[in-house]
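Entry 14. Ran structure prediction on the chain below.
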Amino acid sequence: QCRLEPVRCSPTMGDCSSCERNKPSECTMCPVLVEPPEEGDARSLFDGQVEVTVRCPELAATLEPLEHLQLNFDAMGAVGSAWRVSEEPAPQGFLAFGGSACVIQPKCDSGTATAASGEQFQDGTGTASAATGSTAASEQPLNGTGARRRVLLALPVWAVDYERAKWLSALTVPETWLFCRLRRTICTSAFGHVVMEFDYPAGVVLKDWFREHGTMQEEKAKALCQGLLQKFTRLRDTPLKLYGLVVPSAIYLSGDGALANILPLGCLLSPAGARAAVLCHGSACLAPELSQAAVRGQLEDVRAGAADAFAAAALVLEAVSGMSPKAIRNPELLGRLPEGASDLLLRLLHEEPTWRLGCEDALLHPWLSSRSSPETLAK
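Output, structure tokens:
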């Protein structure tokens, strides 16, 4: 344990009864605090929404920050000759864990884009890295206009598991996979970054959908829950581990509220990158044991499936009620959910991972197979 001097517990790092406001505490549950920076802090990192301050000097000294950057993708040789950088901002979910991102589109939208198939891309050192993916599959219509968009994401080399990224970029996935497709991965060693090219995600960001349509009806909430649990379970048979590193801005829904796309960024992070993502860009969707493991530098000891189950439940809870995982322990708020939903979410959001219901077992819960009531989840 290391001595912390918290002003208040981080709302994103789990509940900790031993932390008290304005009092020093010895607590590994709250190593990262969401507070305005103060003079003398070991390190401050800005994630675009809140100021995240690491107050433990020993921890800050060993933490590589994942910061938001503005990189020139053309100068890095990451943009194919048939493509150009668009002025459109990159979707927020790609920047959930820092780095730099941009949208690219064909120079001639009416033509066929071939950049993602056989073209060679310079890696910044004069060495070409071959792109992956098929030309036919790369021709993805956008809004029926024939225009196409992709997203380039650059993260520091140390933050990316390059072998996993190459494995995923070489994978030809069916539409039912629902994880946003990674087209190619190149290491721009001269710039110290790995650049990954993704398909532009289809659908509407979870929070935007919620803002437009309000809380979900029970039937749609069940479908979302089943979709997330099924997709997270599917990762078990792959080299990828998500560790629950998913945020609401990385979840996309179709117009009718069905699960449409998931950004698999958490699967592509190295142990050091995952540690920085947890400590620098915390989210209420993250399982509480992740922060403890990140402090110790032992994320590999975390049960990835248990963390995924927590994240799925947290996302469903937010979509149907706007509540955080902490709020579900409030009997009054819990009473707003149907009995079956509250039982399942409580089991999935258990703070102790060994007692938490796993994704596969959760799919067998009676609520997901029962007929929906006419009431919505949020009364």
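The first helix runs from residue 57 to 62. Will compare against last week's run tomorrow.
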